[in-house]
Amino acid sequence: KPSPYPTLCSRRPDYTPNHIPNPNYIRIFDTTLRDGEQSPGATMTTIEKLRIARHLAKLGVDIIEAGFPASSEADLEAVKLIAQEVGNNNNNNNNNVAREGEDGHVPVICGLARCNKSDIDRAWEAVKYARYPRIHTFIATSEIHMKYKLKMSKEQVVEKARSMVAYARSLGCDDVEFSPEDAGRSEREFLYEILGEVIKAGATTLNIPDTVGYNWPREFGQLIADIKANTPGIENVIISTHCQNDLGLSTANTLEGAYNGARQLEVTINGIGERAGNASLEEVVMALKCKGDLLGGLYTGIDTRHIVMASKMVEEYSGLQVQPHKAIVGANAFAHESGIHQDGMLKNRNTYEIMSPEDIGLFRSNESGLTLGKLSGRHALKAKLFELGYDIDGRELNDVFWRFKSVAEMKKVITDDDLIALVSDEVFQP
Ligand code: KIV
């Protein structure tokens, strides 16, 4: 049965020549510009958002959630600009420079809206300029949110969700995503009911958020499996995950979601987002790239060689620094300091690297990628010096090594300049 999910782009890898979605294809929905920007202090300017959106298109992101147009005039304008420029693959200049999104990929541009007409109108006003526009509307479904935040009964919440999805469709938007906020803490039967109703009303993607990052992997995977098994009409829509990182489980939960049937994963660059953030794009995508076979051959359309640049842009524009030991994009993610590790690396890089830095667009200034410190051994020092143009051995190497050790005791990281100074002293001393 053909999916009602709109064709993203004829050249996307999720479509076979007959335009039937490949069941193993995972759509990457990036919400750096919406949920990511909700991180305290992460406000970005319109031009910064446009640059990030362009880069996300280059990365091959399937859906860009460009903002929450009802939240401010500036957000509406930013989403609109992204819809016009990135959502149509315009390069924004006429100088015959290569177009953004090298393979001609045109992402879906999405705007967030609460379940009310005015939010939905503003979201549509912003995204309708895109070739593939999407409205993403949400309402909370957990007892605690309905009682204290919404002050609405279950029946009222279902009616609101159903009528607002239908309203979004009535505007001419044929791609509508619905999220039952706080699904991770919502009653199962109620979820099946509300999701079944919004499918009937025209929702094309059902996103299941663990809004407060409270689930753990097995639990979240089971939630997705149960929704898939029990929601009427679910076979005609895409199931999505949106996992917050309050317990540090967002990546694991997202992957469990995929394993149990989700085919859209909501993520952010560097994992930025509300409180402890969201599942990070680079972790989820690289986990699927390294181990997707174990999950039944799941794959994404992301060109991972643009990951490092995306991370650096978001770090700079959001002002949120990436911790050095952050998986995939942290400064130490491919650094090897202890002697045993360095020795292994020199013999075969696979001894301590499960992916190649070049795969994520990290090109090191040196071949070996060794970082020298107090735990480094002679082999690594010799290799590093060789790269720097000093081929020394025997007593000479031994002398430099002990001098290097005493400096390394005092300095955390030994730079190339430090090494050159050390070896120059040794070599040129009478
Ligand atoms: O965390 C959340 O529940 C959200 C929804 C709007 C998807 O951000």
From TrEMBL:
Q: What EC number is given for this enzyme?
A: 2.3.3.13
| Swiss-Prot/TrEMBL keywords | Acyltransferase, Amino-acid biosynthesis, Branched-chain amino acid biosynthesis, Leucine biosynthesis, Metal-binding, Transferase
Say if the entry is tagged with keyword Transferase.
Answer: yes
Entry superkingdom? Eukaryota
Q: A cellular component term (GO) from this record?
A: chloroplast
Q: Under which pathway is this protein filed?
A: Amino-acid biosynthesis; L-leucine biosynthesis; L-leucine from 3-methyl-2-oxobutanoate: step 1/4
Q: Which cofactor does it need?
A: a divalent metal cation
| Class of the enzyme per the UniProt entry, highest EC level | transferase
> Which one of the record's GO molecular function terms can you name?
2-isopropylmalate synthase activity
What catalytic activity does the UniProt entry give for this protein?
3-methyl-2-oxobutanoate + acetyl-CoA + H2O = (2S)-2-isopropylmalate + CoA + H(+)
Q: Where in the numbering of this chain does the Pyruvate carboxyltransferase domain appear?
A: 26-308
A GO BP entry is:
L-leucine biosynthetic process
Q: Does the keyword Transferase apply?
A: yes
Role description:
Catalyzes the condensation of the acetyl group of acetyl-CoA with 3-methyl-2-oxobutanoate (2-oxoisovalerate) to form 3-carboxy-3-hydroxy-4-methylpentanoate (2-isopropylmalate).
Similarity-based family: Belongs to the alpha-IPM synthase/homocitrate synthase family. LeuA type 1 subfamily.
- How is this protein named in the record? 2-isopropylmalate synthase
**What species does this protein belong to?**
Helianthus annuus
